[in-house]
Amino acid sequence: MGRGTDSDEAYVLDLCDEHLGETAERQRRFDWLRGDPGTDGRRARLPVDGYWPGHKLVVEYRERQHHEAVPFFDKPDRLTVSGVHRGEQRARYDARRDSEIPAHKLRLAVIRPEDLDADPRGRLRRRDRRADLAAVAAVLDPVLRTWPSDEDRVVDAFRTWLAADGWTVVPPTDPYADLEAVRPGERLIAEAKGRTSAPGIDADIAYGQILRRMTASGPGVRYALVVPVSAADHALRVPEHVRRMLGITVYAVDPDGAVAVVG
């Protein structure tokens, strides 16, 4: 990880940038992704190869040493802070990334040399950019069609619906809002929830979150609660006259992504 600008890893991440239309944060470290404790008890933050925040996507490029023994990289005669040699530690940390990244509602795509035009040693020497770009797309596109959580599915469907209805999605004024959109004379601030085991409690929480977002004022400002259609009845338990007074509209998203105003 963290190779030079001419490395295979850098080449693959460049291809991902091109396909995604977004530049990665390379070697990004998250507070929740850490290694094993060292002798001083500290746990270093583990880097990921590339992170695209606009797509909520992490890409790991895993070369031969990630899935087969390579003494040069494994250093079998040296123990790491994990009490094992580097090859075993690498496998342990890869497994940690595989579990922790989706657990924190990010997409994860793993690209390997064999996914591209690699030689028998796993090196990308030919670098046929057109063919390699297609190979990267074949790995990334199925991942991009998934959502880290059902809430992300609901947000994505509502974002698409807003664009079709003439709204422009903008960075939220309140960084904790799920979506904010504008069109002439109007501003819409949205709180979204996905399918959960406690839809009634989550609807109540969402109303509390919307109240905390009510820092903007003006005749064109209104609010949205966006829920899966299965949770619509729970969202409508707040009386209509209260929702109308607060300027809150309830939207429901069905399993196919269609959006409807329900209250």
Beta fraction of the residues? 15-25%
Q: Which CATH architecture of the largest domain is right? A: 3-Layer(aba) Sandwich
Distance between the termini: 50 Å
The count of helical stretches stands at: 8
Top CATH class of the largest domain:
Alpha Beta
What's the overall geometry? elongated
Q: Can you give the mean pLDDT?
A: 86
Overall number of structural domains? 2
Biggest sheet layout: 6 strands, mixed
β-strand number: 10
List low-confidence stretches.
Answer: 70-74
Kindly state the percentage of residues in helix.
25-40%
Give, in spatial order, the strands making up the sheet with the most strands.
5-6-7-8-9-10
CATH topology group of the largest domain: Endonuclease, Chain A
**Helical/strand content category:** alpha/beta
Order of helices and strands: HEEEHHEHHEEEHEHHEE
Rg over CA atoms: 23 Å
Structure description:
The chain has 263 residues and is of the alpha/beta class. The chain has 2 domains: 8-144, 3-Layer(aba) Sandwich (Endonuclease, Chain A), CATH 3.40.960; 150-261, Trna Endonuclease, Chain: A, domain 1 (3-Layer(aba) Sandwich), CATH 3.40.1350. It is 35% helix and 23% strand. It is built from 8 helices and 10 strands. The protein has helices at residues 8-20, 71-74, 86-103, 129-144, 150-164, 199-213, 232-235, 240-246, and strands at residues 25-34, 45-52, 57-61, 107-111, 168-170, 179-183, 186-192, 221-228, 248-253, 259-261. The chain has a 6-stranded mixed β-sheet. The longest helix has 18 residues, at 86-103. It is elongated and about 70 Å long. 24% of the residues are buried.
